[in-house]
Amino acid sequence: MGMCCARCLDCSRHPSHAPVLSPVSPQSLPVPYWCQGMPGCRCPRALTFGGPGAKPSYLDRVVQEIVESERTYARDLRSIVEGYLGKIIDAEEPVLRPEQVSALFGNIEDIYELSSTLLQNLESCANDPVAVAVCFVTRSQEFAIYTQYCNNYPSSVAALTECMRSKVQARFLRECQERLRHALPLGAYLLKPVQRILKYHLLLQEIARHFEHKVGDDYELVLEAIDTMTCVAWYINDMKRKHEHAIRQQSPSSTRGTRRRCWSGCKDTGGAGSRV
């Protein structure tokens, strides 16, 4: 197989130095003591972290987890927008009624656009935890769109339940799932934005917990990012509690009409979320 750098003695005996990268995660591969990150070295560790055989710190792994999980999340959102919503819109014969589509997907396209932009910003941070924190601070107002999505989520669940009772609609959605090769049905993917928005502040807290210098402007930026995303999560959870309480207070005879007014009113409060 040949030597990949001047200090590698025998690549055939050391798979981690093979010129063709292994599908195994670079973080899990050992770095032999003779690897010094020489020019032209194809060692997975050297390629990934840029340092001379540097082992990633826990903080490095936290930052990588934020970026990688956002990449997966953006891919999942794209599958909803293109693999389900797009197929419904492009269908020759209407499969779902317009009100069903609106209730089912809410503002998922806006969520996907925000996640895609955020991912681009995160990927340009070069594994810098402070730069990652800044991404959330500078886009704090934009996360208000999650309030609308989360407010609509109960209607989305109801719409999906209705679709699954229709043989035609249920078959269409299953065919979309098969084309996407998803192991989980649409409902599991529609839940992801609700789960994701409530996780950001937890990931940022991990950055703060393992930040080397817990003083200074850099650390303050990390704390500001945590405060920003914690407020977003708190607001959404508070709205969720209010919605659930309102539904419990409804009498069976007035549930349908009152619920429609509730969702409409909750969407109007989305503007308040933009102040978070």
Automatic annotation (TrEMBL):
User: How is this protein annotated for GO cellular component?
Assistant: cytosol
Biological process annotations from GO: regulation of establishment of cell polarity
Q: Which domain of life is it from?
A: Eukaryota
List the PROSITE patterns.
DH_2
The record's section on Pfam families has: RhoGEF
| SUPFAM superfamilies reported for this sequence | DBL homology domain (DH-domain)
- Listed GO molecular functions? guanyl-nucleotide exchange factor activity; small GTPase binding
Q: Where is this region: Disordered?
A: 245-276
Q: Which UniProt keywords apply?
A: Phosphoprotein
Signal sequence span is: none
Question: What residues does the DH domain cover?
Answer: 58-239
The record's PANTHER family line, in alphabetical order, gives: FI17866P1, PLECKSTRIN HOMOLOGY DOMAIN-CONTAINING FAMILY G MEMBER 3
Query: Know the name of this protein?
Result: Pleckstrin homology domain-containing family G member 3-like
- Lineage per the UniProt record: Eukaryota, Metazoa, Chordata, Craniata, Vertebrata
